[in-house]
Batch of 3 targets.
Target 1
Amino acid sequence: MTILRAATRLAAAGGMLATLGQAGALAADVDLRVLGWYGNQPQQQDIEAPFWKGLEERTDGTFSAQFRTIDELGLTGFEALRTLQTGAFDVVSIQVSHVSGDDPLFMGADLPGLSYTFDELGELLEAYSPVLDARLQERYGAKLMAVWAYPPQILFCKGDITSLKDLAGQKVRVSSAFSAAAVEEFGGASITLAGPEVYQALLQGVADCSATGSVYGNVNGWHEVTDTLYPVPLGGSGVAIHTIRLDSWNKLTPEQQEVLTAEMKELGDALWQMGVDDNQDGINCNIGAEPCKNGIVGKMSLLEVTDEGRAEMKAALENVILPTWVEQCERVVDDCRAQWNETVGKILDIQL
């Protein structure tokens, strides 16, 4: 997409929201223009959309919101940071992996192999969030309001595997350059396929393994054409953030800022808990364990992540993933290495 086409679409999106605001004649003190993530996700359907719809009632008319999803307006996740900068929206939801091409710093706590549980991820994000917030404020004129995560991308493989070393000679579908580097470190061949193409690729032998979230794989039937589920975070943790433009934030009174901060914390906490619950439910469904509340019962075998498995992934993290990331990050942020070492690196006892 050319920059001109992207700008035209963003202008059209902003005009649509302005028209909607005039038509709605909302009586709240502050009417927020909100851009959410893709509308086909349960996070947006079940939590984010109802949250913004009920904002005016919960805040006694302090805030209202015009909520739209990014796909509803014909935009893509890769445009999220550029959309934020246009000023067409006050609040923008961003999945950090989608904007890493524009700004690699955002991926500093979401690289493959950094964390294996939501508790571990939460510790990393608590340390790294000030780095994200500073970057948002200095470069994009925005403030970090909430941090949460989708289920991590884990491995669905055909046949029996016992470790990451078994990826040698295998064709593994991945969705990022970092995951590709890890696969190749283990002797596998990384391939790129759109999500809807993966089922047939696995069925026909075009792919031997594929990384995705436990829920996405289950909903799309991957458990029917694979045998082993390995919850090693080969594709990262699906971190997402909610941001507000500083221009919008600074217009609020201190009391309004306090109310919105509390509301956004509630939103972030709810989205975080959904990630925790959905991840485990997806795993349960794929392997045929109880409870399986929202998916399709499968018969996959679960390969538990052992200390040996963590050591294998850590070797790939240190040998190829982190060097690739820091090289990219330092092209746009001079002190990227130092900031990472003082936050995520200190927790993991890894220094770049």
Target 2
Amino acid sequence: MDILAALKAERLSIADFLDGLDDHEWDVASLCDGWTVRDVAAHLTMSTRTTLGGTIKGVIRARGDWNRMTADEARRLAARHTRAELIAQIRETAGSDRRAPGAGPLDPLVDFLVHGQDIARPLGRSRTMPIEPAVAALGHVHGSAFYGARKRLRGLKLIATDADWQAGEGPDEVRGSAADLLLLATGRASAVPHLIP
């Protein structure tokens, strides 16, 4: 799979999706605890614009809490930019291979695939996750210590029903689409309650 091509396609798709939302939908709570759709959109502009110096300062301000630092920066950008500006920023860097400090090649793709669902599902809207990128993202998340999936899913064997993919060991099996398994692996169990054994 061409990761950058898949990422570009997902970025442009998210930009189009956001462009089609009504004003009030931008203020709806996303699947990210405490984040609105607007906050998530702002967060999605960050991966190609974040610098090492900015990250270090943000982590210091957040007293070492990575999640707090990310949320604070997303909210700051959401307050500073209009909807049109945020969408334009996503489109402008759709083909960029620049990543946030410490991020691997698949991390921006994971971000866009998962956050696309974070904004669509609470709005009752459907976003199809392309299967090959979803499987690549799922394998990456399951194997990465950063996402905490192995700890979160200890004792579970995950089996994709729409792709030749499985991972994990344990007496309990969880079967679902690669998209739903990816949401589960990234800590969004509330979005896919039908997957919980």
Target 3
Amino acid sequence: MSASHDHDYLRTALGLAASGVPVLPLRAGKVPFGNCRMCADLSCGGRPHMRTPGNCGCPRPCHAWAAATTDPHVLTSPAWAGAWRKAQAVAYHPGGAGVTVVDLDHAAAVAWARQTLPATRTVPTTRGEHWIYRGTTRSVNGVRDGVDIKSTMSYAQWRGPGTGTMTTLPDTVRALAVTKPSPARTASRAVAVAAPAGGGECPHRTPAYLERGIAMAEQRITGAAAGVHATVYRTFLAVLSVHGRCGCLTDTHITRLFSAAQAKGESPRHCADAWTNASAALGM
């Protein structure tokens, strides 16, 4: 890979950072790098493609959107040099830049936006368009077919400044972002990561023991003031370590945990990945 390659991406990143846009490098497949030695091999429990933080001991979050920065000293530091050499694109944190990206993934989604949303700055993508609005909201994938909302706790690939005048985030998009997943959708995701079959000794002396454990886990997730991704993973790990081997943990219990996480902004996909990673860490 040529030296000019990483210099071009870094130059773009530095220009964006200077304008107040938090940026980070992406590797192949639009996947962020693990930005510390521990996280590079997933021993922290992060998602397989490093899109969300795991249970690492870093002094600050180092994954994905949480790694985005406007600090030129960080962007040009030796720790990031290897990432820029291998980078395939530049990403940015829309929420950190005070904007929301409506990611339209195909022609039908673009047609819907043109009929439904107020005109704003648009950026062409490989299969559709990014519509960028001034203002932030919750990030949610799959709010409708081919439509993702990327703002807080998310990242988007930088594809250029786009065209048109950026307008204020409309209530239509905010409404899509705050709509909670339906019980059916949440339940289907829980079934997709069905509870372990069991076979171990049951530690539940009474039904209240398991109920109390699930309730405490829900409270831990709900009470997270920061580091939601890491809190969800650690909570799932704790639940599985106590209740995951005997067969008493049901899809209903998992649905409750997923619902608590989604109420804090986690997507069903993030929940499923955290559950899978926690199960794998315990050898289940």
